[in-house]
DNA sequence: AATATATCCAACCGCATCCGA
DNA sequence: CTCGGATGCGGTTGGATATAT
């Protein structure tokens, strides 16, 4: 009854990844690209299910990942997008280059939610809490107001209002949290500013279209591509990845990521012995 | 210093969706 | 059109770490 679990085979490992496993997966993906995940464990010599490999790669090992806390601008963008998209973390993550849905989801649950509550804003509806108490009957989660295919006039019409609200949040945070402001890079601020000041771009953020900002970063396979083929966009644009396989990638700004990964591998290997 | 409690985040689980046969 | 396999997504869990008592 029901679907068989994908990882029910004996000998399929679960739990935290070891450095050795990371190494195998990194080497495999860098050499062969992201092909069908089901085949990856076997081909890479891993005793994991494909799902687990995909998750490990997309959430942790991918070289284009940013590390560390979300900047203020990113956080603000997450709030904006959450107000429109609800808990559609992958959609939100798609608008934040180098961030994963898991990361954003975790950050939302641990940081942003609390911040909004502290400020008297309901993190689900993005309405002021006291206002919500009076209009509880009609209020639902933002996701429920959302269009399935991006044509909800209410949302479009409310963009300015929502933008304003979110700018207020941003501004009040600037006053209350200098550390956040320090964390926010100039690039991020510019990114957010340009997005917020450009209505068409801002509107496009919550439509199911790849924004210009993201297009510059997008290294993921396009959906229409056959997964068995290494996506040309990824390979063509990231020839460096293949070069990175055997030597440093410090010239590309990803040095922290891979060297961290490999450092971690080294450290963990030492610890294990 | 020891213990309890809170917080964070990587990873898992199960359902939804996509897509080819 | 239907079915079944593969992948994607969002919710949840559990272990590690930080903080409070």
From TrEMBL:
Highest taxon of the lineage: Eukaryota
PROSITE patterns the record matches: HTH_MYB, MYB_LIKE
GO terms of biological process kind: carboxylic acid biosynthetic process; regulation of DNA-templated transcription
UniProt domain Myb-like: residue ranges: 9-61, 62-112
Alphabetized GO MF terms: transcription cis-regulatory region binding
Annotated InterPro entries: Homeodomain-like_sf, Myb_dom, Myb_TF_plants, SANT/Myb
Keywords: DNA-binding, Nucleus, Repeat, Transcription, Transcription regulation
Domain HTH myb-type: 9-61, 62-116
GO-annotated cellular components: nucleus
Region described as Disordered: 128-159
Membrane-crossing residue ranges in chain numbering: none
DNA-binding found in the keyword field: yes
SMART domains per record: SANT
Location(s) in or outside the cell: Nucleus
Bias (Polar residues) ranges: 131-142
Location (main, coarse): nucleus
Protein name per UniProt: Uncharacterized protein
Organism: Clitoria ternatea
């Amino acid at each position: 009854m029901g679907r068989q679990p994908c990882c029910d085979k004996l000998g399929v490992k679960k739990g935290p990844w070891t450095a050795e496993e990371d190494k195998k997966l990194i080497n495999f993906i860098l050499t062969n690209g992201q092909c069908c995940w089901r085949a990856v464990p076997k081909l890479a010599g891993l005793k994991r299910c494909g799902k687990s490999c995909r998750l490990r790669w997309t959430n942790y090992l991918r070289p284009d990942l940013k590390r560390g806390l979300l900047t203020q601008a990113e956080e603000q963008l997450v709030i904006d997008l959450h107000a429109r998209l609800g808990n559609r973390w992958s959609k939100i993550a798609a608008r934040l280059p180098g961030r994963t849905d898991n990361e954003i989801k975790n950050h939302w649950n641990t940081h942003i939610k609390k911040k909004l509550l502290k400020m008297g804003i309901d993190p689900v509806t993005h309405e002021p809490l006291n206002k919500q108490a009076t209009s509880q009957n009609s209020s639902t989660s933002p996701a429920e107001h959302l269009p399935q295919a991006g044509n909800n006039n209410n949302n479009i019409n409310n963009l300015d209002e929502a933008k304003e609200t979110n700018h207020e949040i941003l501004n009040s945070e600037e006053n209350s949290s200098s550390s956040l402001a320090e964390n926010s890079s100039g690039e991020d601020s510019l990114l957010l500013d340009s997005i917020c000041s450009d209505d068409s771009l801002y509107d496009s953020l919550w439509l199911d279209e790849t924004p210009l900002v993201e297009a510059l970063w997008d290294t993921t396979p396009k959906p229409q591509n056959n997964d068995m083929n290494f996506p040309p966009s990824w390979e063509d644009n990231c020839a460096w990845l293949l070069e990175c396989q055997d030597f440093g990638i410090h010239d590309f700004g990803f040095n922290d990521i891979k060297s961290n990964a490999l450092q971690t591998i080294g450290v963990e290997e030492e610890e294990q012995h």
